[in-house]
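Hi W., the fe (ii) ion complex you wanted:
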Amino acid sequence: MLSREDNELLTRTGRDTACGRLLRAYWQPAALVSELPAERPVKAVRLLGEDLVLFRGGGGYGLIGRFCSHRGVDLSFGRLEGDGLRCLYHGWLYDRRGHCLEQPAEPEHSRFHTKIQHVGYPCQERNGIVFAYLGGGDPPPLPGYDCFRAPDEYSFAFKGLWECNWLQGVEGGIDPSHVSYLHRFLQDDPREAYGQQFRGEVEGTGRTLSALVGENARPDIEVEPTEHGLRVFAVRALDGAQRHVRVTNLLFPNAFVVPFGPTQVFTQWHVPVDDENHYWYMILYDFAEPTDKEQLLAQRLGSCTLPDYRSTRNRDNDWGFDAAEQAALTYTGMGLDINVHDQWAVESMGRIQDRTVERLGVSDRAVTANRRLLLRAIADHQAGKTTVGMAGSEADARALTGPQAVDMIASAGDWKQRWREHDLARRQRSPWASPR
Ligand code: FES
Ligand SMILES: [Fe+2]
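Structure:
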């Protein structure tokens, strides 16, 4: 439960809010690279409540204020010229950082253009996503996380619109107990296996993950602070002394890292469009094999509409709820895509969850730990201190590695050692990952 003031503090992300300033201190996903096709790499983007236009030119990206500093025309219709964008109305030309270079109608020797302070943010591309830095001062280096280090062919990126506040999305991702219910299948999971997290067989058990976690709804949950945020253990008792161990992570402040099968992991950010809508962006990466991008893309495109990446199951159609399906096949009655189950859970709370009336138990300790971390980081950031997961230097960035995300069976006595060995062995076999 949060006070009304704290719920406001954690969910408001505009430019002049404390949480908005904290989120802006980290690199944030702004668009998929594929949203900027070669024919016209210009796109209107709304990010953290700011209207912006993203473009590619001269070998780099620019993310600048959407409305022209002259008289407010929409620059997302502008003309790309070299590495700049020219307004259609009177021809003001902006470079990638928002500097105004030309004002053709002004007197020939005018210096007026040097006085224009148009919004412009630095960008960089990683594994299919354009990341932007909306904070003040020089941008920090990008951490050395696996999602950024994986070679392009071993990764896959996608995004989706969720119509609720960003924090609901993050809290869903770090909540390990809901998988026993929300993602359960009443019969054998009928889906195609590739890239489907809960369909995959858990090594050494002959059982699918959905069957294993569905039978044990009371995991022991442990949360520990790390340099990247939080590490969350969910340990479920199986037969005898066997344990199912799932290690997931909060990547502070607005992402999580979870296993997606024996060799795959994904990192998923939840970044505000505004306070009532957000995009999830994910980079899936495989330690062992190149990803089948075509197949993954076809799967994801089959369940959303472009250009907004809105799920075809959404609040306007009750997420496709089907009572007969709920009785016979899936726990939710909302189809086979577990991403939709998660979407429904957090959207159904309302645009901004009223956390003054919730009741958290011990099984919610990751959610509770994250809120404490966030409240402390907001205060620290306001006081000018470094916050968790922030790379102040290249050396700091190199030290932010992993995180380790594991799904495995181990014995009750030594699982704490075995999960690390499991992760290390996977890295040692990997053509690209470095041991940590
Ligand atoms: S409104 Fe853009 S140049 Fe005049
Ligand atoms: Fe989930």
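Residues 365-382 form the longest helix (18 residues).

W.
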